[in-house]
Amino acid sequence: LAFHLMKVSVEDTSRLTVAIDEMKAKVRFCDRCFNLAEGDLCAVCTDDRRDASVLCVVEDPRDIVAVERTGEFRGRYHVLGG
Count of domains in the chain? Predict the structure, then answer.
């Protein structure tokens, strides 16, 4: 990251700083599953099309991204590291 930041303009680093500050202010852990969320509940927990009777337990929110990329799982999650 440091090498990349040395190559970009001051304006680009300023935009990155603002984006990081906004993310830290807006993103939190879901109250239900501990995934990343912009509100009390994440997008998975608020999706009524999900099968609430099937739970996938993962270690980290990044694992949810990996499972979701398969397009096969339609249940809910619980993040242990949350």
Answer: 1
Helix, strand, coil shares of the chain, percent, nearest 5, are 40, 20, 40
Give the domain extent around 21. 2-79
Q: How far is the C-alpha of 20 from the C-alpha of 51, rounded, in Å?
A: 33
Q: What is the pLDDT of residues 45-79, one digit of tens each?
A: 999 999 999 999 999 999 999 999 999 999 999 99
Q: Which of 24, 18, 19 is nearest to 38 (CA)?
A: 24
Do 52 and 75 form a contact (C-beta atoms < 8 A)? yes
Q: Output the CA torsion sign for 59, 36, 66, 71.
A: positive
Dihedral-angle region of residue 22 (phi above 0 means left; psi in -120 to 50 means alpha; beta otherwise): alpha
